[in-house]
Amino acid sequence: MKDRLKLAILEAETLGDTPFVQTLRLIATVLDDQGFDADDIEENSYAVIRQIIAYHQERLSIFQGTGSHKKAQAEKGLIQKLESLLPKTYSDESLHEVICEKITACGARSIRDLKAVMTLLRQESNRSIDYEHAKSMAIGLLR
User: Fold this and answer.
1) Cβ contact 46:27 at 8 Å
2) At a CB cut-off of 8 Å and minimum separation 6, what does 24 contact?
3) Are 87 and 54 in contact (CB under 8 A)?
């Protein structure tokens, strides 16, 4: 993730997008200051980005409420750029398909096999999966 941030900073600097450069540097600084392990950096960087998005969404609603259309547009643009750094998430339908594939792959037949299904899901190392939602979906399929 740190490499992606560095690349995004360089691109934003090249485009002269000062607000985005400043936001990306803030994210990089927070991640450096926290000293996350290599295993945790990806997940924690997404959490930091989501917190910053939430902050800018609050600002957006304030600007929209006060009629500051130019500032609101700037906030929307920044939010979209930050969201592009996050992994794509599964829709319910595609998550259902992935879980069905994992159930078939491990031969799960009952709720007792839930751990095997979840282990296979985590091996995908796709952090865009909401594992609590996936777990409840898998339980429904295994009943």
Assistant:
1) no
2) 5, 8, 9, 12
3) no
State the Cα–Cα distance between residues 47 and 66, nearest whole angstrom: 29
**How far is 135 from 11, CA to CA, in rounded Å?**
38
- The residue ranges of DSSP E strands in the chain, in sequence order, are none
pTM of structure: 0.65
CA distance 142 to 113: 8
What are the tens digits of pLDDT across the range 76-86? 999 999 998 88
What is residue 124's three-state secondary structure?
coil
Sign of CA dihedral 73, 74, 75, 76: positive
